[in-house]
Amino acid sequence: MELPGGSQFKDVTQLFQDASREMDDDELLMVDGFTLYDAMSAVEIGDPRMDSGAPLPESQRQPDFDPLTPLLPEEVCWILDRSMACEMHWHAGNALAQTVYTCLYMHHLATIDLDSIPSEARRRFFDRGLPIQLTSLVIRSGVMGMVKCCDLAYRELVKGNVHDCEDWQGEKSDTSLLESVTPQRVMMLLGDAELWLSQDENRDVPFRTELLHRIQLRGILLRLFSLEMPRKLPFVVPLLAEARQLLALVRGQTIPPPQEASPALHAFDPRITRRLHSIMPMRPLIIPPQAETWNAVEGLLDGWEMTVGTLHASSLRWKLSRPPFIRSLTQTIFSDGSTIMDRFAVSWLVEHFFLELAHISFGHIVSLFEKNSFGSPSNSFEEFHSALTRLIVQHIWASYHNRPRQRRHSMKTVIDWHELYDHALAMTARTKPRDSADSRVLKCIPLAILHWRAGIARDIVLSGFELELHAPDERPFAYWYLSEILQTHEEVLKELLSAVPEDTPARNHLLVQEQYVAVLKEMSLAFFTILTCSSKFDPARRWSNFVVRYKWALRGRYKEISTPDPFAPNYRTFLREEKNIIEEEQGKRIQKALRLLDSTLPRLVQLGTLAEKDIALQLCRAEFTQHHLAGLILVSENVREHLVLLSGNTDTSTSSSSLEQLRVIWDLEVCPWFPKVEVPSHRIA
Amino acid sequence: MSSASSPPPSSQSPSPSPPLLHASRPRRPAVEALKDLLNRTLRIACSDGRVFVGTFVCVDKQLHIILANTDEYSMSKPEGRYVTMVMVPWRLVVTISVYGDSDDEGKLDVL
């Protein structure tokens, strides 16, 4: 290889050696403004973890890829399937260079264009009796379709609803995603491939149907990705139905994996990063197997369906496991900044907030706060309305962020909700009710806000478990504080329920909430009871840790608000409770926890029945009952069983440490908020 | 070359040193010449066959050389690829050369 730059360079190797001898041991020569911190971000050449361009050992070297190597139809099928796997793995949050770009055909699309294939290469296909169209039409259009789908998804992801490097990876490594090719052009090519596969003279091509289904599925996916949202929303449902049908067909087809010497195996290079422009070093990834890929495609289709459902639902909720693309798309559909769901004014959210939580019509609220006979609302109400609108919109946006970001948003805004509650109390106190209906409305306005805020405070603490933020020593307080929040929440719900009419959707929703809150309270108290133990840290150290961990609930700004915060954590009370628990006999503690769990289990079952009537669970009822409640039941039963075992073995000589012997096992898939427990076998024997 | 005339970064000299120590420090012609190369384009040929061309921004006594805005050239990518900032350890270095500039050739020749 000729040295780049030619003869314009002058050798200075000796100068470096001489300078090294003259330099002090810890001396650094740097350009102005360059820091050690900058130096740390340099990629170390020769370090296999960072240096993507380092020469590979012989065993890892891949033969040169020739895109014009004739392929068998089943090999083409396999390549299309694996390219789909690469695409889905990008959607899962990995870099393009580790996934999509590893499909080498995408870097040779011009080479496999039928018009530019040289006659010599054509002859190779002819000699092997393999149609050149398998490469020039089927692979080319299939891979182009995959790349274009990524480009269209990229355009959605880059809108800022989800975050690059956090939810997804946007680094393109200077490689084209066919940005300048229209989706229509790619659809046309897919159409050509479909036509060729459907022709009578190709009826004998093996795996013809399998290829056809794959090209059709890609065509549908491309059409879905290219829909302009939310304007083209009505087109989603029929396309989804078609995609699901094709996915089922493709899933049922068995494609033999390429043989050891097959050229198809060289169509993917996991170490493509070594040849790409790179900002950060990337390790090669193992692309998930095909069954997982089809699950991911199904997940994407489910996400689309859920997004469409959002528009027809009376309340919004989200599911964590949705890929970033769907979370971004949902936000795009939810609001374009001026309207909600392309149909309603932003104030629609406030109307539904009170209707769904307290069965109050917005017109009634407005009539209470008219400042004059012309019906214009008072300034105070306008401020309240605008603050509530802003907070709800932000809350829904944040619901589609990733979990840590959502938690941060809640921690930041929980005080704003308290300010709003204070505002609502002051505003309603100043208003004179005309009749009992007015009194009901005035009572419900602040309570609805308090109920909402209780949910946010609860979620902050619970997400701490979900994100594994709490050290073992911090868990008893977290559960105790959670039970305190839930205790207050229970009281708020009782008050609210007393003012909400029977047989209304709002009441059904609040009844579910009441039961749900009671269940969580009992479970958190049970876990506080069994997990509390003498801390190895002194109170001062624990206090400083506590202040940092719960700064969101201890902000100085709370003192500036006239209404005291009903959810303020009281560390002294906790220490008292903790002392009481520690001093209590182990047997009694176990019995106390057992009583709580005994009460929880029937409540959980009852909750499943109550949930049937809650319209707010319309879109996620199955998920709520079959996954979420089932997880809580599983954990409660597990802990109950082990406590029963322990209580049977508790005697005065061994009981002192029996609870401390419980091993806590977090299974985030089963229940992210409460752990299962295990008793070491020697304790039971 | 702006960097050549600018004072060396504070990390290069022990900060509490009295002026007398500076005065008694032996002349270091190679270090001074190397400082002149900062911000210039270097080409580093490595023992694994790769060549890096980038802006020389930092070096230590052990000759860990940091290049910014670097392109990597190799047999598999002879047209080069951009690899941002790299640190080339001396053990991999075969030759280092600086992009020619007639103003500085005299200085380099002296060494």
Automatic annotation (TrEMBL), chain A:
Location of region: Disordered: 48-68
Keyword vocabulary terms for this entry: Cytoplasm
Gene Ontology cellular-component annotations: NatC complex
InterPro entries: NAA35-like_N, Naa35_N, TPR_NAA35
NAA35-like N-terminal domain span: 26-186
One Pfam family per UniProt: TPR_NAA35
Source taxon at top rank: Eukaryota
Subcellular location: Cytoplasm
Residues covered by the NAA35-like TPR repeats domain: 325-490
Major subcellular site: cytoplasm
Family classification: Belongs to the MAK10 family.
PANTHER family, alphabetized: GLUCOSE REPRESSIBLE PROTEIN MAK10, N-ALPHA-ACETYLTRANSFERASE 35, NATC AUXILIARY SUBUNIT
Protein name in UniProt: Mak10-domain-containing protein
TrEMBL record, chain B:
Top-level taxon of origin: Eukaryota
Location of the region described as Disordered in the Swiss-Prot/TrEMBL record: 1-26
Bias-annotated ranges (Pro residues): 1-19
Domain Sm: 32-98
One protein family per Pfam: LSM
SMART domains linked: Sm
A single GO cellular-component term on record: NatC complex
UniProt protein name: Sm domain-containing protein
Organism: Sanghuangporus baumii (Phellinus baumii)
Organism phylogeny: Eukaryota, Fungi, Dikarya, Basidiomycota, Agaricomycotina
